[in-house]
Amino acid sequence: MLYKDGHEYQSELYRLTQWAHHVLLPVYGREVTSTAPWCSRWWDHPEAVAQLHGLWLAWAHLTGPDADMTGPASWHRDFPGPVMGALRDPMGPFAGCKPGNHRPRELPPVEPLAPPEPAEG
User: Fold this and answer.
1) For the region Disordered, what residue ranges are annotated (predicted)?
2) Which of 52, 78, 83, 93 has fewest C-beta within 10 Å?
3) What's the domain range around 73?
């Protein structure tokens, strides 16, 4: 998902938001608190997009028409808890966001790395 751009990214993001808003959040969208933040503009947080996209792909694979009967149980056991826990952690990507108030995260500073010297030979 993070490697897509333009129309391809927007189309995939739209499908992801439909799944998140109509399948995931009605079941796993617990109350927002200071210790479990959520951003109403979660799609503006690249980490949330990446994590939720992976969660969505796993859900599609494990609950789709070709999935075996234990797929849904495996998905519930292995995926939403860790992802939602990471996203809603007080120090996670939504730290500083409040209902109806998106706050962009500051990226950590990064020092530039010089390109490698040409190989001798």
Assistant:
1) 90-121
2) 78
3) 42-101
